Amino acid sequence: MVMQTDLSFDPSLLAMLHKYWSGQALSPVEQDLLDRWLAAAPENLSFLKEIDSQEALVAAFRNWKQADTEAIWQRSYLPLQREQTPARRITRRWWPAAAAVLLLALGAGWWYTRQELAPAPIVSASTDVDPGRYGAVLTLADGSEMLLDTVRNGLLTTQDGARLVINEGRLSYQSADAEETVAYNRMTTPRGRQFQLQLPDGSRVWLNAASSIRYPTVFSGNNRTVEITGEVYIEVAGDSRRSFSVQIGDSMQVQLTGGHVNINAYTDEPVLKTTLLEGLVNVRTAQQEMPLQPGQQAQISPEGGRVVSNADLQEAVAWKNGRFYFQHADLPTVMRQLARWYDVEVVYEGNIPEASFTGKIDQSLTLSQLLKGLGNTINYSIENKKIIIRP
Questions:
Q1: Which neighbouring-strand residues pair with 252?
Q2: Residues 328 and 299 both lie in one domain
Q3: Locate the Protein FecR C-terminal domain: which residues (predicted)?
Q4: Are 371 and 383 in contact (CB under 8 A)?
């Protein structure tokens, strides 16, 4: 059974087929695409009737030995890597790469490498886990705490003359008449939460899950300094008179006068990463100093620091844009991110499976929907907010 190649490998069609299979309503444009594809060849209708799961769709795809994989690569997969990988001719021995295109188009974005396939698990609705959402805890200078998960838009409180206003998942300071009294607040996002903050100087901060920022209610003096844990993306408001410093623990500081930077400083990650998108940054540790230009990334590990040119900016800020983005990530790397976003525990029973994952996937999926792309590569179950992975 072979689908018509003029339509069958169009990512839009593949995404539409997944929606149809999963029972989602099709838009008029998608319905027209489905009708045209079904009319293109009788085999297509037979194919649609035979496919009863995403796994079956992937398996059928793998059997299309005669597929024009070079066209598949050029249309769908290559554009995702064009900035990092020069174009090259793909011969038929590379046809498995097309499986990645299918998974990406389905929204399950996994390209994996493993010799044996594990059976897909059965996950009931009662054991599934919803994705993370907006929410944070604001700790004021006096120690009082405010839960921001369900706060409506509008005035939250006043503090030393400043108005703290919530608007669509972002806390901002309106301090035109604020006093010069300096107090320090802390915003913390638990696991399974993200939030945004506009600092008193107008700088904007995005906090990923399991992160925090400590900041003054008024920036005074010649420097603007905040302290962070976890992962944050910062758009620094320009100020030629005062630099902006981000303190990470006791031994690292990121300093800039303006620009956009992503800092991944989770303590359970083996490498601390500072990625610069705009502006100029200076990364300092007790041992060295690393100036960065846009597109570069400073990586710091126990072995020391290094600067990576031509960093993958999409990967660095994917979380801010509501996506997971993996490039040849091993299973523990993937699971650490899922654990933070879905607020689950990951348990390995036995040896950790060797696998490599590349792709993008939307963070709005439930945990079982997201893990569906892993169903053929690892043996897992979801039990009481735990992902249990078995050999």
A1: 248, 285
A2: no
A3: 323-389
A4: no
pTM: 0.69
Is 119 domain-assigned?
no
Query: Residue 81: what pLDDT?
Result: 35
Are residues 119 and 383 in contact, defined by beta-carbon separation less than 8 angstroms?
A: no
Per the structure, the count of domains in the chain is 3
Read off the pLDDT of each residue in 66-77 and give the average, rounded to a whole number: 39
Residue 241 exposure: Cα atoms within 13 Å on the Cβ side = 5
Tokens of 281: 């940054």
Residues 384 and 345 grouped into a single domain: yes
343: tokens are 């607020």
Q: What is the CATH number of the domain that holds 386?
A: 3.55.50.30
Please name the amino acid found at residue 16. M
Q: SS3 for 102?
A: helix
- Here the CATH number for the domain that contains residue 192 is 2.60.120.1440
Phi and psi at 97, nearest 5°, equal -60, -25
Give the mean pLDDT of the chain.
77
pLDDT interval class at 222 (50, 70, 90): confident
Phi and psi for 160 in degrees, rounded to 5? 50, 40
| C-beta of residue 236 within 8 angstroms of C-beta of residue 260 | yes
Is residue 114 domain-resident?
Answer: no
The pLDDT tens digits of the residues spanning 254-270 come to 999 889 999 999 999 99
Within this chain, do residues 149 and 207 fall inside the same structural domain, yes or no?
yes
Separation CA 11–CA 74 (nearest Å): 12
Final residue before a domain boundary, out of 316, 345, 374:
316
- Do residues 273 and 301 make contact, with C-beta atoms less than 8 angstroms apart? no
Cα separation, 17 vs 30, whole angstroms: 9
Residue type, 232: V
Residue 254: phi and psi, rounded to 5, are -115, 125
Domain final residue pick, 106, 125, 156 = 106
Say whether pLDDT at 316 is over 60. Answer: yes
Residue 379 lies in a domain: yes
pLDDT (average), residues 10-14? 59
Residue ranges making up the domain that contains 90: 11-106
β-pairing verdict for 133-134 and 193-198: parallel
Whether 50 and 90 share a structural domain = yes
pLDDT tens figures, 173-215? 776 544 566 789 999 999 999 999 999 899 999 999 999 999 9
- Residue 29's alpha-carbon distances to 9, 76, 103, in angstroms, are 17, 20, 22
